[in-house]
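Lay summary. Proteins are chains of building blocks that fold into shapes, and those shapes determine what they do. In this project we predict the shape from the chain. Here is one chain we studied, written as its sequence of building blocks.
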Amino acid sequence: MNLEKGPEKYSERTYRLDRVFALAQELGNPQNSFKTVHVAGSKGKGSTSALIANAIQALGYKTGLYTSPHVRDYRERFTLCGKFFDEDILVRVGNELQRKTCNYTFEGMKPTAFELFTMYAFMLFKESGCEWAVIETGMGGRLDATNIITPQASVITPIELEHTRILGDTIEKIAFEKSKIIKPNVPVFISRQHPQAMEVLVSEAKSCRSPVHSLGGEVRKLESVCRPGFEEVDLELDGGYSEKLHLSMMGDAQAGNCALALMVLRQLGLYREGVTEKALEQTTLPGHFQRIEKLGRVFYIDGAHTKLSMELLMKSWVQLFGPSGGTCIFGCVADKNHTEMENLIINTFDRIAVSRPGTFKESDPEALFAEMQELAKNNFRDCSGYRTCCSDSKKTVVLKTEPQDAVRWAVENTKENEPVLVCGSFYLAGDIMEVLCH
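And here is the predicted shape, written in a compact code that computers can read:
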């Protein structure tokens, strides 16, 4: 498998919104039973969705949260702000979905797994009486199964090169796909973006006559420091809002996610002083700089899988533990910008185990291992401004395809007082967490 394959055609057969609309109609259009916030982007959309949902729930509204992928349990995808639905409603709604779709086809095509997950979430939210739901796109936006909703707000987190074989091989092409969650006259909230991505997003918003609120234009101050156990965020917004927050979700990226969430909540009239801040501080999400103490070691599990998210993760890691080497378990799927992530990891860690990020998506850990070996031989110096490797530093890169072997190697080669980072894929995060917990 060649990691540098070119873009493949965005399959109009696989991704069909008309099929999703028809399926929703068959199920009684459950997505119209509650108000929604729609979130797209390359990175941070899960965290931003969770922050918004938790803050809305704190005001007394029953609030659903739909995210993907899951880390360990499918039920993570459709929750009441992170709380699993009771077994009885899961079974009852699941049986109804199965009964209505077992023989259902649209132009000879059966629904995809993601379309069924999405409908299941909408049905659960309707059946449980949700007043609000925060909906994260699965991939892209234009033809994403979630894009049948008309939300109260469209939210777009940072856009990077990702899923290039499906979404396109330039920032502009990917931004175009994400921009299509913007609906006419619905306010859109945009995180800091590459200028080319911002141009596409603003153009789409103008064509839809949708008010634009940008993080770069409305945030006066945004600083964060990763502390043991929390992320310290100091922010100021237009209108005189100023606050210091201690977020449970650690990592430099969470500062921007929190600021974006606050912009949405304030503009939609869903902000209450003190209550909102407490809800944001208490929000957590599996696989987001999650600390697990097992086997006599401390593991930090993070799903960072893009260049920007990895840069921010490395920055936070060095703030916490200093530029002292350490151990990392890394793996990523084939359509990610793997080389730039490898450079960042090589510059920060002295011991690296390359592992397989699950089997759900295509990957080639052997090819990643070969590339990282070559990078390690070059004794890279700092390319990101926060870590300098000594010219004589020795890097150890091993291939441990099976997650349990990677964990065993990390434990054997890491001192008791040294942490281990797992990153590169939510699929890898889930597999490592399964090993650690069982």
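What the prediction tells us: The two ends are 32 Å apart (CA to CA).
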